[in-house]
Design a protein that fits this description.
The protein is of the alpha/beta class and 173 residues long. The protein has a single domain, classed as 3-Layer(aba) Sandwich (Rossmann fold). The strands form three sheets. A seven-stranded mixed beta sheet has the order 6-3-1-7-8-12-11, sandwiched between helices. A three-stranded mixed beta sheet has the order 2-4-5. Strands 9-10 form a two-stranded parallel ribbon. α4 runs parallel beside α5. It is globular, with a radius of gyration of 14 Å.
Length: 173
Amino acid sequence: MAKVLMVVAQSGFRDEELLVPQEVLKAEKHEVKIASLARSRATGALGAVVNPDFAVHEANPDFFDAIVVVGGPGAAKLAESDDVLKLLQGAFRKNKIIAAICVAPVALARAGVLAGRRATVFRSPDGVKALRDGGAIYTAEDVTVDGKILTASGPHAAGEFGRKLAEMLKGGV
């Protein structure tokens, strides 16, 4: 099956935006690895704790079919990380599936992968502005797919986001 890398903030990722899609992917027999800015323990906004398999700078998009950026209050640091932006740009150049939920689509916009694409984000003036500044066409939908780009607007959409990602991986989008 497919190999998926989920990128979380070291502190303050949104628990269900990691755990719900991860559960959906594992149920479909996909291999899921986790990366953060460092390999040290990462903590979710609601208390989930994960031990990342990689620091983002160690991750190579060649080894994954999809890169997923998880949102939450800590995700702003991901959008400011050169390592995260380089990972997303590398995955985009290699035509991999790229996904982000909640505020994390801002990282995709800053990486330049949303230009001319339909996308959604957590409904905040800053998030919508960041998408538009990155050339995205903001949809205000819960989940938006444009080619190999998948975005979702927040924790309420985590289940649909996970199912859509599994569908994209199965269909070889």
